[in-house]
Design brief:
Elements lengths: L5 H36 L3 E2 L28 E3 L5 E2 L2 E6 L2 E4 L5 E5 L4 E5 L4 E6 L5 E6 L3 E8 L4 E14 L5 E12 H5 L11 E14 L5 E7 L4 E7 L4 E8 L6 E4 L5 E6 L2 E6 L4 E7 L4 E6 L4 E7 L3 E7 L7 E2 L3 E5 L4 E6 L5 E7 L5 E8 L2 E12 L10 E3 L5 E4 L3 E4 L2
Amino acid sequence: MQPGSPVRRRRLLVLIIGVVLVFGIAVGAMGMARGRRSVSSGGEKSTSMMGKGPMAGVGPGSLLNPLARYREDMLQVEDIPSAPLPATTTGRFSEVGKVPCPLAVVSDTHTGQLLIARPEGEILLFDSSSLAEVGVRRLERTAYQLLIDPQRRQLCAATVRPGRLVLGSLGDRESAVGDLDVYDLDALLQGDPMTPQKPRQRLELGAHVTSLLLSPWGDSLFYLAESPQSGQIGRITFEDWKRDAVLPLRGGSPMALALAPDAPLLYALAEGRVFVVDLIDWRMVHPLNVGSTVLGLLAGPNCRLYLVERRRDLQLILIDFATRKTRQIPPLARWHSEIDGRPYLRASGTEGRMYLGTSAVTDGRILAIEETQDNPLNITVTTQASGNRQGLLRGPLFVTNDGKFLLRGSGQVFSAF
């Protein structure tokens, strides 16, 4: 056989391909083994088995993907005609004050103060009875989500790394990269207003935290976070500020969390789906395909769930997870409204009442929507607010955790009563 002959070249090519395949299989097996070791040695209840770092998830095509087993059980929402969102002769929310444009708001019922997060790490303190500013404190980083652990007097904050917060032209938060910090709340309130306070502990995420919720038992918080590569639902215990459970997601599309008011269930909007998490054994059940046009959700009693969707108009959908035929869930009702802008759906703290806010170039809105007693299919807009000559309603809608105030990203404060 002559050197360089076609037969010799073919044999050499086959040999090279074989070596590459064997090397690839060996590397894949080593990666899976490392993933299994990381799960068995870690303290978290997790189904994430690949990669390094707190936001590492699994690939969509992996056999280890915890979402893969839900594909066959994926539910769909049927499309039904919508009716106009009904309104009575509506009242008007009373505007009771104005504050500097907030990034986040939380109410400390123990001291009667509102804590308002601002850029450059500022926390402005307002007396909730007079809405007078009573002080300022400074954090090491800028906070864009706030939550109070009332039992241990801790302030939990999603904080942004320097230069990694992006706000839209109307003040809506578009993206962030940061971590989860916890502060001694009383030490913060009594601290030096000129000295930035350092967190008691920090959980490194390197992600955008889109939701923070207090657990029904008050011993932990739930968070939803996304990075460019993946997302996750996590649980952090207040006692030691450790993440003890996590569920990986692929990320993408709008992301939000909602707690059922009458059952240990957590609803998560991500990937154009709604995932239902059983909080007792920390597992996902009954994922529901809703599409990327759904931008928010709010949980009601008896497995009911409200979804807000932006199509050509704004749509509000009521579904019942307890009602299904094969893999279809027929919505109980669908309503539409002509109001413009990015929607925000918020709980009020009062059963049968919710708030729908919009952020728009022209002007945003706030609508109080109430269910007719004993019939959730009959809803009506009872109270509303819009901008005026002093300012248009723009940016996010905040509802204080005591249910007393509604605030806009543009700074207007309304009484909820």
